[in-house]
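Entry type: protein chain
Record version: 2
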Amino acid sequence: MAKPSIGARKGGKDAEQLRAERRAEARGEGCRSAAYSALGHIASHARINETAADAPTGGGLAFVTDHGRIVVDAYRDADSEEWAWAFTHLWLHLGLGHLDPEQLAAAGLDDPETEIDEAYAAACCVVVHRFAEHLQIGTPPPNVPELPGGDELSLTRRWREEGVPAQFRGLGCNATAPCMRREPPPLLGPATALPDWPALFAKGLTEEAATALRQAAEARGERRHQRQLGPWDRALAWFVSSYPLLGALASGLTLVADQEIADAWNIMLAAISAEHGELYINPRADLAQDEWRFVLAHEMLHAALRHDRRQDGRDPYLFNVACDFVINGWLVEMNVGAMPEGLLHDPRLSGLSAESVYDTLVTDLRRSRKLQTPGARGHGDILGDWLSEPAAAARRSSRRTHPPVSLPWQRNDRVGAVDLDAFYRRALTTGLAYHTPDRGLLPAGLVEEIRALEHPPLAWDARLARWFDEHVKSPETIRSYARASRRQASCTDIPRPGRMRPENIERRCTFGVVLDTSGSMDTVLLGKALGAIASYAAARDVHAARVVFCDAAAYDAGYLPVETVAERVRVRGRGGTVLQPAVRLLEQAPDFPADGPILIITDGRCDVLRVRREHAFLIPAGARLPFTPRGPVFHVR
């Protein structure tokens, strides 16, 4: 009796059918993953064709037509993450209007029979790549080059004259061929009206931001106010529908028009709490519709640019005033609404940053402190740590609970946690990308600040690692014939020197640690700081560090293995913190190298320190030292 074939044993399916099913399953999973995002509305109107005669060839995944049809290569072996990236790339072409007739006409492709040329396709793929970096869906192709600046039309004009660089020819989903094509109109019957792809994309962006904020509020147990809509609500809705730069941001913030809170916090017009994502309105403020637009845009820019975290030791109220001058100048230049009477604006400060305006204000403190912001008198409209007990009482009376400011926002299980900085950064950068030139030019200073958000500063542990690399020199091995090389056995007639380390390695490669062990020290701060120190010291081949514990007096622990420093810490809680004796002990210790750096870990509640050698500070986020430090300060978050 003949033995049944493999296909028969698997229910009549041969190997090729099984591969086809696996390919279809990967495509479907990738499509669903990409559609579960801001591109969902585009995905619901677009069509996917898997059996077209003009399917991609030569290694391409898919391409998109101006009718919203996605043509895929059904025989391409790719995983679901690759397909998710491909669908995201092609749907972004539609959402960003790259195949709209107006956009094609502006690019010199107004004739419907003209094929999309390589320069325009490559320029559009560059813009899509920049936008897809914020969505983070799927796996992009490897070795993506550094993307140039400029929009689609400027890149197209340049590359038509100079030629498309080789590194930008394969950025699309159709190998080296353009991943956008035109379809001829139907021969019979009227042409079908195509969806407004950019409008669908804008709707998806606003809905995603609103959903993320709603889920975050539900996770925190917050209750929304049920109230009648006011002129401020209509002003906020105008940003969502008509002003892309701030549309996603406006849809994500919670507007609170509560007279009790406004009275408790002494809010004149409006104020913003960036940590809670809430915009507070004084309902008694008598403003016109255009004036509410100006005030809301003012507060949203405070939150998006994180002015509450940029004080860096400056006076909070004066820095708030400086930021008001800068923001109001931008809004007047952009002609967003009408500035209410009494707000701060000086054309002479145009083009200056908030830090530069602050330096101007501190030259006349008596006059500067009399300037009024739209928020609370004496505190400004940037709500921070000054929230008082009357304000908390107002929240309790209105049955509204606020989470701790350190609580991260949760979006959903698919993408995980997204903190406030990531939300504000994404809202502004995507808004800038969608703010087309025909909606008006933006001030150069605002564009520079938004571009700077695309490259956030390094985290404290990464900057600490750089400090270690710069000041804690790793020991260099030397070669010596006193120790034979391990490769000596392969050529016994040729002597080879072996690698060895110098005998005084521990003395040359070390650093000092001054640990504040007073009762005010946070154990979480100690754990994070000592964990980072141990990992970086191990990477630099530092076996032991010179450790001094200090609160009211200095306790010399000598040289300790870096991985056991945390086990020796004992928070004694003996009154105040005097760290200068500990620093002096290390500087005068005969067994500590003269060029050894010192790392000082404290909560900032210490005396004034004078350190004569290279040093750095590790302090909690939001804390301030009672003096101007000369070494770098790392804020542990």
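Comment: The first helix runs from residue 6 to 9.
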